[in-house]
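We now fix the convention by which a protein and its fold are recorded. These numbers are not coordinates but entries in a learned vocabulary of local backbone shapes. A record is reproduced here so that you can trace the correspondence yourselves:
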Amino acid sequence: MTEARRRQEGTLAGFLTYLLWGAFPLYFATLRPAGPWEILAHRIVWTLLLCAIVLVLTRDLRWLLELARRPRRAGGVALAGLFIALNWGVYTYAVLSGHVTEAALGYFLNPLVTVALGVVVLRETLRRAQWVAVAVGGVAAVYLTIDYGRPPWISLVLAVSFASYSLLKNRLGISLSPIRSLAGETLAILPVAVVVLVWLSARGETTFLAHGGVHTALLVSTGLATAVPLLLFAAAASRVPLSTIGLLQFLTPVLQLMTGVLLLGETVPASRWVGFAMVWVALAVLTWDMVTHVRRSRRARRDLVEPAP
């Protein structure tokens, strides 16, 4: 396969990934009358079951023993599972409670929070444009807090939880394939799902078998809805430059914002659009810096390989 073909396939996979994630508000809205806790529990259970089927069919289970022998790595996988479960739960709550636009803001803020965590946790050094982007993003967060009359908790929790999840994945490295990683994370948080389902059953608040076959099938489909975009993302990340992935990722919050406003009837006051605009300015600066840095790095590598005569 030629490099151009690999990039085309990777770009398509990335586009489909962020398109699917952008359509999640409509998908989760169809899961009513299930509440966010029940949806979270089913998402964990059915995702783990799907991963288990794939791993059994491919006879790829030995890595579980290896992971168990490395408590530190297993702990990192478990912590990643807790962060992604928090992200899933808060996002589902946002959709079902009519806060899709606030959730979209969280994913706009995510790249800025990721950069900030890199400085605080990994002691990374930022370029000047990155500092400007983070500063503008901080001003936007303060402005939106004043406008909401409270901190935009949904946005902040989504941004911080996913950025923390990404940081852990970075620290864990590529020792686990996407399907192994997802299986390990959902296995670690399976007790949470079991406790939630038992608790809801004891209260008579489960909807799994009480609202017809279509509703049951939709809850079962949360496993596919979780795994497919992640596997597409893995395919994209291995085929296209990071700069392309960075640009494609903004498709998800844009679609979520449009869905919230145009399809789900959420209202965004004019004053709040100002805060969104600040975040977009910060993202524009961050994207410009990223693209410029990638181009300079490529040019430098070409100069090393092909020195001028």
Q: What stands out?
A: The chain has one domain: 3-305. DSSP finds 15 helices and no strands in the chain. The first helix runs from residue 3 to 22.
